């Protein structure tokens, strides 16, 4: 069979292969872009029911977080409440099912929001009035748990994996005091057992303990606004030099995320609190983080993780989960 090798000098084979690979990578990246932009909510503008659900949970989570804070700020949440009112009012206007998990989680969270203000004697009637009368009824009549829950950290007992995963929660307010860095090394050693594509182990862990540096990074990251600085900030990255095919363009994030999850479970097992914090930044912000940490250029940012001591007792967002039936599809053989 005739191949391009027969016509092209061997010195050009490598560059030509790289050029073809680059063309394929551009095509695949464009396909990623199409997938994302056909289905995700561009700039928070919903284009389908699933976008509405995502936005409902997004703003509900913001209210949940406000309800858990030690320094509770009465009447907080103008922006998420206004957005939720639009989304929930439209949901009912469009005749959608109010028993939907996310819609119901929003109502339960809002009921907690309004009853907490009632208990404090703070009038937030203007906020309730944002919601249509039918939605107000669903909020005030909601009987499911929502908003926040109080968790007790008692790490003496041996836990099954199921118990450990149920215990792990994102902590944003930590007990004051430093974290034993030996525990982080031990957790990194456990996380290094995570699977990775062809065992290429591209994940890297940056451990930041310098308070000034943590403050600078968190100001850029902007996902932990209003909370005290955590004693340790981790950044999981993935070295893209370890990937060899255009189809692997997203693999650094998959391998890095598996590493990050194991790391967080290992820290939970050791009685250390964590909160993953997004590292999906706009280029200007990413550039600043790269400069602050002097990151190798080949490393892709996967996620930050705030780390600190677990308090004995704390409030955390309720964080309702979807039912297994709604997330699992069984593809069975027809001939059973
Ligand atoms: C990749 C990733 C990024 C996240 N980024 C943030 C963040 O920037 N700020 C924040 O407060 N929580 C962040 N979270 C935490 C989620 O809000 C939290 O995992 C979710 O609400 C479920 O709650 P749980 O972790 O307590 O079970 C992030 C979680 C993940 C997995």
Structure explained in plain terms:
This protein is α+β, with helices and mostly antiparallel strands and 336 residues long. It folds into 3 domains: 4-39; 42-146; 151-317, NADH Oxidase, CATH 3.40.109. It has helices spanning 13-39, 49-68, 78-93, 101-120, 125-128, 133-140, 161-167, 181-191, 211-221, 251-269, 283-293, 324-327; strands spanning 148-152, 203-208, 232-239, 272-278, 299-309, 313-317. Strands 2-3-5-4 form a 4-stranded antiparallel beta sheet, with helices on both faces. Strands 1-6 form a two-stranded antiparallel sheet. The mean pLDDT is 95. The structure holds flavin mononucleotide (FMN). Flavin mononucleotide is lined by residues 61, 169-170, 172, 223-224, 275-278, 303, 316-317, 319.
Main pleated sheet: 4 strands, antiparallel
Report the structural category: alpha+beta
Low-confidence stretches: none
Radius of gyration from the alpha-carbon trace, in angstroms: 24 Å
Q: In the CATH hierarchy, what is the architecture of the largest domain at level 2?
A: 3-Layer(aba) Sandwich
Number of strands: 6
Number of helices: 12
CATH topology of the largest domain: NADH Oxidase
CATH superfamily of the largest domain: NADH Oxidase
**Any ligands, ions or cofactors bound here, and which?**
flavin mononucleotide
Overall shape: it is globular
Name of the top-level CATH class of the largest domain: Alpha Beta
Main sheet: which strands, in order across?
A: 2-3-5-4
Assembly type of the chains comes to: single chain
Number of domains: 3
Distance from N terminus to C terminus (CA atoms, Å) equals 45 Å
Please bin the fraction of helical residues.
Answer: 40-55%
């Amino acid at each position: 069979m005739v191949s391009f090798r027969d016509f092209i000098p061997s010195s050009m084979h490598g560059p030509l292969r790289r050029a073809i690979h680059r063309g394929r990578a551009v095509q695949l990246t464009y396909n990623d872009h199409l997938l994302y932009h056909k289905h995700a909510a561009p700039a928070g503008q919903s284009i389908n029911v699933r976008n509405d659900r995502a936005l409902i949970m997004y703003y509900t989570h913001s209210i949940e977080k406000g309800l858990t804070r030690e320094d509770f700020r009465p009447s907080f949440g103008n922006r998420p409440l206004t957005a939720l009112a639009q989304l929930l009012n439209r949901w009912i206007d469009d005749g959608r099912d109010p028993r939907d998990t996310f819609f119901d989680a929003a109502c339960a969270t809002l009921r907690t929001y309004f009853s907490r203000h009632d208990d404090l004697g703070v009038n937030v009637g203007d906020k309730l009035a944002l919601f249509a009368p039918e939605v107000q009824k669903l909020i005030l009549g909601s009987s499911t748990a929502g908003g926040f829950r109080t968790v007790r950290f008692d790490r003496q007992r041996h836990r099954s994996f199921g118990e450990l995963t149920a215990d792990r929660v994102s902590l944003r307010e930590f007990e004051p005091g430093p974290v034993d860095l030996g525990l982080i090394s031990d957790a990194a050693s456990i996380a290094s057992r995570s699977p990775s594509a062809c065992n290429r182990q591209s994940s890297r862990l940056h451990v930041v303990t310098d308070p000034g540096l943590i403050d600078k990074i968190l100001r850029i990251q902007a996902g932990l606004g209003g909370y005290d600085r955590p004693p340790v900030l981790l950044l999981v990255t993935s070295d893209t030099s370890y990937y060899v095919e255009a189809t692997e363009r997203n693999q650094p994030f998959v391998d890095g995320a598996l590493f990050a999850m194991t790391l967080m479970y290992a820290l939970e097992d050791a009685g250390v609190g964590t909160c993953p914090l997004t590292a999906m930044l706009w280029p200007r912000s990413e550039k600043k983080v790269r400069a602050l940490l002097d990151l190798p250029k080949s490393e892709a940012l996967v996620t930050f993780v705030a780390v600190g001591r677990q308090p004995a007792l704390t409030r955390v967002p309720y964080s309702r989960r979807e039912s297994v039936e709604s997330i699992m599809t069984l593809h069975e053989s027809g001939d059973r």
